[in-house]
Specification:
Number of strands: 2
CATH superfamily: Rhomboid-like
Strand content: under 5%
Shape: globular
Distance between the termini: 17 Å
CATH class: Mainly Alpha
Largest sheet: 2 strands, antiparallel
CATH architecture: Up-down Bundle
Oligomer: single chain
């Protein structure tokens, strides 16, 4: 029972943080979202906290459903002693991508950048051991990302989110997932990774 609870600690912590942020007054939420001007003025926490803010309850619930779906699809992929830093690094990677390569993006809210990175990272880990189904899912993910870069958000996604979808965050999140997977592949030998 204890081992079953530990892997859920990370998505539970992220979910609770998002729910708490959702209960905050709008003015306070605005001080936590990713905002280019305020980050340039030294409010660096927005690089992380922006991912925990949302456009509304529909957007929040959609992102949390994605978080729990990804966690459920890849049991055993997230050991408790490493699961907190991975989402944080993916959030930071998506934010830095927006900062460095999408200067036209002034603001951003939501987990979707981190979720794309988490999915990409998990798929790459699984491909080493079960290539067939996970290569197809990874290919589908990159087709989706390419569609978004060429044609904009997937039809219907903005109405579900109740606002603008920042597709660049999805791309930078996914690239961050690849970078994180590559880094861990070098740092953690395969024998250690298998024992997780």
């Amino acid at each position: 029972m204890r081992s079953a609870v530990k892997p859920l600690a990370c998505p539970l912590a992220i979910s609770l943080a998002c729910l708490l942020f959702g209960l905050l007054p709008t003015s306070l939420v605005d001080s936590l979202q990713y905002h280019r001007t305020e980050i340039a003025a030294g409010e660096w926490w927005r690089l992380i906290t922006g991912h925990l803010t949302h456009l509304g309850w529909g957007h929040l619930l959609m992102n949390l459903a994605g978080l729990w779906l990804i966690w459920g699809l890849f049991p055993g992929q997230y050991p408790a002693h490493r699961c907190i830093y991975r989402p944080a690094l993916l959030m930071l990677g998506a934010s830095l991508g927006l900062w460095l390569f999408s200067p036209e993006v002034v603001w951003y809210k939501g987990l979707s950048g981190m979720l794309h990175g988490l999915l990409c990272w998990a798929l790459l880990r699984r491909i080493r051991f079960q290539p067939a189904p996970f290569i197809l899912i990874l290919a589908f993910l990159w087709v989706k990302l390419a569609w978004e870069q060429w044609f904009g958000p997937i039809p219907g996604s903005e109405s579900l989110a109740s606002g603008q979808v920042i597709v660049d965050a999805h791309l930078y999140g996914a690239v961050s997932g690849i970078l994180l997977w590559s880094f861990e592949l070098v740092i953690f030998a395969p024998k250690h990774e298998d024992s997780e």
